[in-house]
């Protein structure tokens, strides 16, 4: 048998109270792969990540993490099993300090080393451990949000719009961090407004179109010609 994927969705239907957003989506993130998830506004990218993370209920279909069905598990159980979600808007606690945020992100047994590891990866946080997270710059907040990916040794990280609202030089840092995670064998599923940049680091690409997969293939193919525009445009 082939090794299980880090994450796979099988014909997933999900959405909100009255609105179905995902109409049967199948997608695979192989171990160690970098997968780009593109699509126009409202296509359902955030909903897909939220559903994989356990924040939206799966109404039909299934989700597997490392070959095990996690469709019915609450979000925190998925985190314990190796799934890390960095939500749009960062998802940090703004009224808590950097130190307190890191303590909450780390698995209980790793609290002692959490600060050290985060500061090593993001030196900018070092002098700010007792600062309230809400007073950090946008870039520093994003670094803090992403440090959970270091503190939990996840199998897969779902990244929603990490570069939103950041200065270009900080966007470079965000992508460098993601590439570093990938180099360590962490699988990534990335949604980002800078589609070209994601495609350059991706090993596979999907385009969502109104809640369905419209493209499933090579990132390089999407970067060429008009395919890209035709998928993103509609
Ligand atoms: P964007 O880049 O604009 O965030 P997206 O591809 O991530 O787009 P989603 O945010 O997943 O798309 O939204 C998909 C659909 O679900 C949209 O029609 C949106 O209006 C709807 N939607 C999103 N969040 C909610 C919610 N909390 N309640 C009801 N409908 C929602």
Automatic annotation (TrEMBL):
SMART domains: AAA
Record-level Gene Ontology MF annotations: ATP binding
Stretches assigned to the ABC transporter domain: 7-232
Gene3D superfamilies per the UniProt record, alphabetical: P-loop containing nucleotide triphosphate hydrolases
Keyword Transmembrane tagged: no
Keywords, in A-Z order: Amino-acid transport, ATP-binding, Nucleotide-binding, Transport
Family the entry assigns: Belongs to the ABC transporter superfamily.
Listed name of the protein: ABC transporter ATP-binding protein
Short name of any one Pfam family annotated for the protein: ABC_tran
